[in-house]
């Protein structure tokens, strides 16, 4: 089997506090997934959806959101990228899918996160592959999903930039039946929430500078762009400390001393 790449599923350490903005999506998840999950015992009729599909442009926090859902619902997290499961040998791709679900059941309560779901489940009507490998992969995925419908402790989340490419059979009730859109929100208020979430573990000289930085940012920045901005600011602050250490003006206690300044953010910007 070539599924050795799967890490042992565990609860991720991403919480709602690490997700900036996306308030509507969070509320929806809390109402339809978190609350029912936390209040459904295994014998009760299942009221939560089997799966959700997060869709939207790259870098808008789909992976981050999936991890936060797992954390907030106390579910182990098993992450696979669609293309990783595809294999040139006859029957191996289907076996990989079976193995992923097997592993998830062993680790239940568990969520399986299928990143790039479109590559795994392309619309069968659109491909010239009738009866071919992709056809069998989609069928296997449907069979596994249908097998999870009755289970309260296995849950699937898919992510894609191209929901239009996904086989509609995957989106029927009992499968990825709840679709949530994650977009780029260009309001300054949301941008500030994102930068605050990304820096919640930083030491910042003056948190008030974040508003001034956000006001200078392009409107179309995604969460991933803000992540790059904050990492660069942290690197800039770290470099400053390292130069001080090299000049004999500071000790080696880098973690205690890395304080990010407005200049660091400006340089990163
Ligand atoms: P892709 O479609 O390219 O896989 P994605 O939508 O899954 O992208 P993520 O991988 O979740 O995006 O985002 C990349 C990084 O950007 C995250 O690890 C996180 O650090 C940051 N990020 C994205 N959105 C947000 C957000 N709303 N709040 C805080 N950080 C965010």
TrEMBL record:
Residues 48-186 form the AAA+ ATPase domain. It comes from Helobdella robusta. It is found in: Membrane. Belongs to the AAA ATPase family. This is Peroxisomal ATPase PEX6.
